[in-house]
């Protein structure tokens, strides 16, 4: 059970359909275009929405934040886009398009366009990251193990994240708990460059403790959040 009423889920699906995220069928919904971000957004949607809402509460008026690619980050961007006095920097063309009618100022950094993720990568993107400043960076991950730290499955996108981490801003992992326990080829980090993890209440207690022992603040969102 998600703890979310049927009416709320129906309203969310209606909103997503109006915004061209999906097409509703009899009894279910399917993405209009099964690209990476949209497909993942539909997986654990209500959990990711709650994570995004919590992450948005950490952003103060007047702040400039970096939002990386990914489904939870896209929902965070949509939430922050409701505020006029927030500046959002991103490498995701998906997020930039999502915010085309938003109140926020949006800065899309350039680079090589990676079609499968709808994001910018490569040395030009790294160079642009060096030229902008932000107080917080919201990062997606593909895996985490205590032996490896945070990992990504794509070399080019991982390189962009590591460029962001070099800025020294508050780096916040925003991800559902399904990513913990997986290992992918490319390292995000070192882990000392991250300050915080926002995830859901399905996170294993052992993993929660391991993250805290690594020096991270761990925010658990959703039912059973108080541990």
From TrEMBL:
Presence of the UniProt keyword Transmembrane in the record: no
Keyword Transcription listed: yes
SMART domains: DeoRC
Coiled coil: none
Any one Pfam family match given in the protein's UniProt record, by short name: HTH_DeoR
Sequence ranges assigned to domain HTH deoR-type in this UniProt record: 1-31
Record-level Gene Ontology MF annotations: DNA-binding transcription factor activity
Keywords, in A-Z order: Transcription, Transcription regulation
Xref: NCBIfam families: trans_reg_YciT (NF040887)
Protein name: Transcriptional regulator, DeoR family
Organism: Kosakonia oryzendophytica
